[in-house]
Amino acid sequence: MITKKEYFAQLPKEIKDGFSELQIGKHLRKAGIIKACGYSCLSIFQLLFLLVFQYRNWYHALQSKKAADLPGKDTIYRFLNSSTYNWRTFLLSLSSEVIRRVKQTISKRRVTVFIVDDSIYSRNRSKSVELLAKVFDHSTRQFVNGFQLLTLGWSDGFTFVPIDFALLSSANQKNRLNEIHSSIDKRTTGYKRRLEALEAKPNMVLKLVEHALDKGIFADYVLMDTWFTHAPLVEKIHSKGLFVIGMVKQLKQRYLFNGERLTLEQLYRKAKRDIGKKETLGSIHATLHTGLPVKIVFVRNRNNQSEWLAILSTDTTLSNEEIVRIYGMRWDIETFFKFSKSFLHLAKEFQGRSYDMMISHTTIVFTRYILIAWQLRKEEDPKTMGNLFLFLCDEVKEMDFKTALLQLISLFQTLAEAKVYLSMDIFQCQLSNWITSLPRYIKDCLHISVCES
């Protein structure tokens, strides 16, 4: 077995220690990501992990002076294109390890959340990619060639950990440009993930949550935006023992209140007003058509008194401020998507045509983020260094109500068709703050300049 590590030796000590501390090799073996001869899977994984820190992509690595020490192109592509490696098991195993370590440093009273969201995985210049589809990009209001990257993450308000994902094509065959390759072995995990790509998004959300729970990863709440907060999915998640907090749109959906079936706007008019509070207009207790009790909080737009947002919670015991504060933790996943695309080369580093390659490379990108998030946690939270500081240090700061409210208020704009979009100025500010907090050696590795942070 060839295990050349010259390239790995150039990584900063902190990240090398992270590989050992989080037992990356063990998680790879647990997922069946092993080889009988040649370069070990761990050494290939390390090399691919390092690309973003040392080279722009694999092509530039092969053009470098160290090309003679690197595996051949065929070795790398066989690794990425394997349909037998269970990348989901690897990611779930690694993320559960990090979450376990994070939970050892926080009190049991601290709120933890699952966050669900999707982002466009663009392959707009491709034509022959397996399962390529025309998907709708809500930010540009246009269809693009690519996939929808549906992601489930975990957060305690400071550290975000991506747990699982599904790379969705389209359930509508008319929107799919290519189908599953006929040569794929139907017994493999790769084929099963291809079938998932054809699932409806709400069904996959529930499956991702189930995968996390089966792995022993738990949270107090599931946070969702308006695209997911619909009664059937809310009911199914609640049946798993999880509370849901999500923003809701003014649709035709009816809520039961005092025996009446009312729209969201009608509930707003009947809501109990928060006297003396400028930010939250009020709240109301209602019931979904499935019979599930919910509390809906209405938030004011300071710039336009006639506009408001509504946040639904299945935990009806929470105060209005606490519902807004917890929902504010959802922005962690927006930072994750932006950082992964801008700095970790999500959907950019390899342009292969196989679905397996997109799954494997996305998992490697998620691993990069997990290790960076873990190193940031250790930099900011001394309790991860040992039990010596356990009772001497305060917990890393949770998101407070004021911060959550400011982020929420930023959503207000004059909207067409009752759609809600994120203010890019506020979002860019949040991302910049997160990048600024990164340790210096990570910024140096990712070539992030001071002006970018």
UniProtKB/TrEMBL annotation:
Alphabetized SUPFAM superfamilies for the sequence: Ribonuclease H-like
Residue ranges of domain Transposase IS701-like DDE in the record: 73-250
Entries under InterPro entries matching the protein: IS701-like_DDE_dom, RNaseH-like_sf
Alphabetically ordered keywords of this record: Membrane, Transmembrane, Transmembrane helix
UniProt keyword Disulfide bond present: no
A Pfam family matched in the record: DDE_5
Name of the protein in question: IS4 family transposase
